[in-house]
Design goal:
By secondary structure, this protein is mostly helical. It is 62% helix and 0% strand. The protein has helices at 27-36, 39-43, 62-80, 84-93, 102-112, 121-132, 146-154, 165-171, 184-207, 213-217, 222-232, 238-268, 273-277, 288-306, 309-331, 338-346, 350-362, 366-377. Helix 11 crosses helix 12 and helix 15 (309-331) packs across helix 17. The longest helix has 31 residues, at 238-268. It is globular, with a radius of gyration of 22 Å. 44% of the residues are buried.
Length: 381
């Protein structure tokens, strides 16, 4: 049952370029479908989550991560009486702006782009769906609804201060009210991201043998999960035991967010989505106890997985790839595909060219970035 504070597709603020309504899909369903069919969404299949895409078939990629986030988000939205299609659209699109090699690639691009306005993957996601996806006859981008764009821009909270250029450019044309919180749907998408990666990074770290099941079983929350599994299934084999424990961990996080959101929403008693935006605080978050425990788990993941020696070595290598591709393409923009050359020809400043080069590199998959580097710069040392 839809709650009064849910985003209502019938009352959407519309699109930058007006379009006729679909006869069989709501505006938010249409947004979700356009995101799924976007080139940038398909490329997430070959973009890093933690491990470089070619390091193994069993590890998560940005695409599988985004699908997992959308599944969690849709579930929570349904329980809270929110619009599931808007929630799903924001969840599916939230990582579209990630460059190759995950946060390592983003860090490198941000350093390279510092003289030209920096680089931020959330702002880049907005740039992709409002400009860089160029398939439609009447507009650049996907022409998403205001609500989907708002969710992409500020699902992590209000955006204040100096705006990333990729967000500032669009916001000047289509005010996304960046000083307020986003809808409850976007907030659910943001917390679902946290739930998904906290869960699946533990899975992937185990598979990569960066830590043991016993080490995992000593962590907060997980300690109780493993104990419950051992009580219920005392003779369970190694793989099923850890899967059952992580399944329970996953459920605890989802249930905690739902309970906290219900409590906070009941206290605020919002009568419209605008009440959510103007609340001055998030409505969807973890309880203090779970958040404290998650900080311990995140610290464990940081040192044992994200900064594991093998991961650090790969980080160095792919950082070098990005750091060398950027000056190459600044010097030789003719190496970019034909569809980019019109933009290059119209770039009348170094800043304009740098932003085109950053757009091109950010759109690369892991394997394509490595291939372009090997073709033009010799690949390895």
């Amino acid at each position: 049952m839809r709650k009064p504070y849910a985003s209502d597709p019938a009352r959407s603020r519309g699109r930058l370029y007006p379009e006729e309504l679909s006869t069989f899909r709501s505006p938010f369903q249409r947004d979700r479908d356009r995101i799924i069919h976007a080139s940038a969404f398909r490329r997430l299949k070959h973009k890093t989550q933690v491990f470089i895409e070619h390091e193994g078939d069993y590890f998560r990629t940005r695409l599988t991560h985004s699908i997992e986030v959308a599944q969690v988000a849709r579930t929570i939205a349904g329980v809270l009486g929110l619009d599931s299609e808007l929630t799903e659209a924001v969840a599916l699109a939230h990582d579209l702006g990630h460059p190759p090699f995950g946060h390592t690639g983003e860090d490198a691009l941000n350093v390279l782009m510092a003289p030209y306005g920096g680089f931020d993957h959330n702002a880049q996601a907005v740039r992709i769906v409002t400009n860089l996806e160029r398939h439609y006859a009447e507009f650049d981008g996907l022409n998403l609804t205001w609500e989907s764009l708002e969710g992409l821009a500020k699902h992590n909270g209000p955006v204040t201060g100096d705006l990333p250029y990729a967000l500032d450019d669009y916001n000047k044309r289509h005010d996304l009210e960046l000083h307020t919180y986003a809808s409850a749907e976007a907030q659910v998408a943001a917390l679902s991201d946290d739930i998904a990666y906290n869960n699946h990074d533990l899975h992937d770290g185990l598979r990569a043998e960066l830590f043991s099941t016993d080490e995992l079983a000593a962590l907060p929350i997980l300690q109780d999960c493993f104990a419950e599994v051992d009580r219920k299934y005392p003779d369970l084999n190694y793989y099923r035991r850890r899967h059952e424990a992580l399944r329970r961990f996953f459920g605890i996080l989802v249930e905690d967010v739902i309970a906290q959101a219900k409590t906070r929403l009941a206290a605020l008693d919002p009568q419209s989505v605008q009440d959510i935006r103007n609340a001055g605080q998030p409505m969807v978050l973890f309880s203090q106890g779970i958040w404290t425990d998650l900080k311990v788990i995140r610290e464990f993941l940081f040192f044992r997985m994200y900064r594991a020696p093998s991961v650090v070595e790969m980080r160095k290598e792919v950082t070098r790839v990005v750091m060398e591709l950027f000056p190459l393409l600044m010097e030789r923009p003719d190496l970019m595909p034909r569809q980019w050359r019109k933009d290059v020809a119209e770039a009348d400043t170094e800043i304009a060219l740098a932003r085109i080069v950053a757009d091109y590199i950010a759109g690369m998959t892991d394997r394509f970035a490595l291939q372009v580097h090997a073709d033009h710069l010799g690949g390895g040392d």
